[in-house]
Specification:
Helix content: 40-55%
Strand content: 15-25%
Oligomer: single chain
Bound molecules: NADP nicotinamide-adenine-dinucleotide phosphate, magnesium ion
Largest sheet: 10 strands, mixed
Length: 402
């Protein structure tokens, strides 16, 4: 069989520990034998980030801006223990944080569903994708511990001299105080990226805030979303047969649980933080969760939602063959290849991505899977290590490509 060609490159970001091992296995067994892989390679493994003073992360982010599509392996975010372990010059920042800051993106997280693993919420039979507004609110709040009686005020001084001032509370005892902010420009680009994502995946979009209580702050989110929907997306949504639905956050939570899934749930920053952990746990496994960062300019960065699976890596170093699950990392690759194909009009590449995903799911459906899935799976299973699992997926893939 002739290998599939790629006109334009994907930005490839290698990573750390067990996922770095899986990365190589996936390329060697599932990609390179079938695709003339065209990537621009950046080594985001911690030793090279340290060697380049983290410049490699910045370079990779700028490369995504240039080529529009990237795929990233999980990476270590250093803490004090890692600084010691890797003898780092500095406690480098989270690569994902750096990439997000440079691309100004929104993260969409979606579970990979198989009939073998039943979600804890039995009605959910389609994926629920969560979009989190990763800007402002409590994550960038200013807070004080108030030592004792006194008056707290909220004060805004405009550049043009306007002043707004209001008493927050007259403290009669010690307490706490917090100031939060957000910006129309950030909310607007968040709204646009979400509407675009719903359109491109043909899913209904839900959005919720607490606008009944927060009549300026949360209501601004509601109004901006509604305005952008009416002005830019209403006709496109109607043509695609999908819906934009706004409700209160409490109502949304209740409806999500009663739903069958199959929609995009757009969340404010804190709601997205908390609810994405709830939804991913309820769908079964972090190892079956993909994540894509989409920027307002239309740049896409795909990755697995899990980390570098450190405990498995230490066993690998001792010569063991751990049963780490490569599915989310494979789906990061297929997401990037499909998007590359879409942007370049490369149908063969898109079809390959579909077949590789189907091969993964068929392998699991047939009962061959890694330990983490077997623990959640219904029916008879054959637990294999990562190498054997990838070999089984390759056999399925070859059947589909024949
Ligand atoms: P983790 O790597 O996601 O692993 C947590 C545990 O979840 C593992 O020990 C394993 O459980 C299970 N698990 C996760 N992915 C799995 C897979 N593919 N196959 C099988 N089991 C899987 O999270 P962590 O241990 O908190 O973090 C490890 C490192 O990853 C840290 O240095 C952190 O900074 C980094 N991290 C990176 C990213 C990213 O790059 N996006 C995200 C999160 C964390 P058992 O050991 O019980 O089998
Ligand atoms: Mg969280």
């Amino acid at each position: 069989m002739e290998k599939i060609k790629m006109q334009n490159p994907i930005v490839e970001m290698d990573g750390d520990e067990m996922t770095r091992i899986l990365w190589k296995m996936i390329k060697d067994e599932l990609l390179c034998p079938f695709v003339e892989l065209n990537t621009e390679y950046y080594d985001l493994g911690l030793p090279y980030r340290d060697e380049t003073n983290d410049q490699v992360t910045v370079d990779a982010s700028n490369a995504i801006k240039k080529h529009k599509v990237g795929v990233k392996c999980a990476t270590i975010t250093p803490n004090a223990q890692r600084v010691e372990e890797y003898k780092l010059k500095e406690m480098w920042k989270s690569p994902n944080g750096t990439i997000r800051a440079i691309l100004d993106g929104t993260v969409f997280r979606a579970p990979i569903i198989t009939s073998r693993i039943k979600p804890y919420v039995s009605r959910w039979n389609k994926p629920i994708t969560i979009a989190r507004h990763a800007y402002g609110d409590v994550y960038k709040a200013t807070e004080f511990r108030i030592p004792g009686p006194g008056k707290a005020e909220l004060l805004f001084k405009g550049e043009d001299g306007t002043e707004m001032r209001q008493t927050i509370y007259d403290y009669e005892c010690a307490g706490v105080l917090q100031g939060q902010y957000n910006k129309d420009s950030s909310i607007e680009s968040f709204a646009r990226v979400c509407f675009e994502y719903a359109l491109s995946t043909k899913q209904d979009m839900w959005f919720a805030t607490k606008d009944t209580i927060s009549k300026q702050y949360d209501q601004t989110f509601k109004f901006i979303f509604q305005r952008i929907y009416d002005e830019e997306f209403k006709e496109k949504f109607e043509a695609a047969g999908i819906e934009y639905f706004y409700t209160l956050i409490d109502d949304a939570v209740a409806r999500v649980i009663r739903s069958e899934g199959g929609f995009l749930w757009v969340c404010k920053n804190y709601d997205g933080d908390v609810m994405s952990d709830m939804v991913s746990t309820a769908f079964g496994s972090l190892a079956m969760m993909t994540s894509v960062l989409v920027s307002p300019e239309g740049n896409y960065e795909y990755e697995a939602a899990h980390g570098t699976v450190t405990r498995h890596y230490y066993r690998w170093l001792k010569g063991e063959k751990p049963s780490s699950n490569p599915i989310a990392t494979i789906f990061a690759w297929t997401g990037a290849l499909r998007k590359r194909g879409e942007l370049d009009g490369n149908n063969e590449l898109m079809a390959f991505a579909d077949k590789l995903e189907a091969a993964c799911l068929d392998t699991i459906e047939s009962g061959t899977m890694t330990g983490d899935l077997a623990a959640l799976s219904e029916g008879e299973t054959r637990v294999v290590n990562s190498e054997e699992f990838i070999a089984a997926i390759r056999a399925e893939l070859e059947k589909k490509l024949a």
